[in-house]
Amino acid sequence: MPNETIISIKNLWKSFGKNDVLKGVNLTVNKGEDLVILGRSGSGKSVTIKCLVGLVEADKGKIAVFGTDITNLKNEELNKIRVRVGFMFQNGALYDSMSVRQNLAFTLKHHTKDLSDEEIEKKIIEALENVGLKEAIDTMPAELSGGMRKRIGLARTLIINPEIILYDEPTSGLDTITSREISELILSVQKKYKTTSIIITHDMACAKMTGNRIMILKDGVINAEGTYDELEKSEDEWVRSFFI
Amino acid sequence: MIQSYFKDICEETGNFALFGGRFFREIVKLPFQINEFFRQCYAIGYKSLPLVSITGFIMGLVLTIQSRPTMTKFGAESWLPSMVSLSLIREIAPVITALICAGKIASGIGAELGSMKVTEQIDAMEVSAINPYKYLVVTRILATTLMVPILVIYADFVGVFGGYIGFNVHGDMGLYRYFSDVFEHLEFLDLMPAVIKTFFFGFFIGLIGCYKGFNASSGTASVGIAANEAVVSASLAIFIIDMMAVQLTDLFF
After folding, report:
1. Which of A75, A95, A111 sits opposite B121 (nearest CB)?
2. Pairwise CA distance, residues B236 & B242, whole Å
């Protein structure tokens, strides 16, 4: 269905103590769209996507994912939404006590009870091939570089075939070449799996490559919205400062 | 100032009670994480054996050597095996072993879960629709509740054997006669209350370790704080439970 809205946030508010982080965020994401959220550190970008999967509880507002308002859902109901939404954490968030194979199998086994060991192994290898790290299957997370951890984190997300993937600063802390590789990987995932994505980033090269729409968060609200080219030519000096 | 301190204590107590209460709700829900439970039993029980063996042996040895002069002075040297075994089984072995477990296990759980929290591994489980409380907390609390009593019973035996070695530093008594003396004066009621209280020791060691780790704030420093607070709180809990257990035992037995 063209232009089907699968994420909708209306008047989202969130405070931590006396610090009001989000002050009425509104956004919608259509199916197949790749939205980039930009903003200065501490502007509430990560909080926004964490609210989408129930990791952070909103103070006020409505969050609808796949048409279901998740703000008052019980955990069991929320989990039905969560299996359709992948989340790539800033540092991969791989389980330290498990090998790469076990990291991927752990998530898969929890959601697919009827798969045989051979089928699980096949899916693990396929997911690792998609991120170009098949050879890392038996390594422990501590032995991986930052870029590799992010790739494995993405493979773990992909293994359950999510319809939406939320990327929390996928290129932070990486060198330019590795950042570009991660951005290309996100792009290939978007094309191959036809996912809808929200990408939180500071990296303008990543934003240009992976996003077809950009929103800029300032003082807890969406301050500007448009394509990369539109925002680059914005009359607002503050918006243009991101593109320098 | 005092008001805010009082409020913090009330909040912490309430959160701890809710966290502990959730254990009883989650434990009856399927599926049970049996593999993780056995992994934790191995890590908590089997890997603590060398430490418990050494401390248990030294407890029995030292208690016997230290008690001997006083017992000899009162002409009660022959009572030494039963006195040492009763002291060990009723009080010293459960409390010392539990304190060692608080140091080793509660701090380990606090640091492990704290570091998982800080590096977003617990969040990763949650967003993958995997219940982190059930997987991480329930299995660890069950493992400590089961393993600490087993370690204490093991420490009882090693401690009594240490007492035998300690007795023979200045004496000469056969192993068979020593253990005959020990079991002659030992009753089931000496063992039972001591073992029952160790289940509570184990439960609170696991619960406190998990609570501190699960609620670590962001930043690597909080991992150390979680581990430290887990040891201090679990050790304190052991003394409080022990005091209550002694009062109850005194009342009913």
Report:
1. A95
2. 10
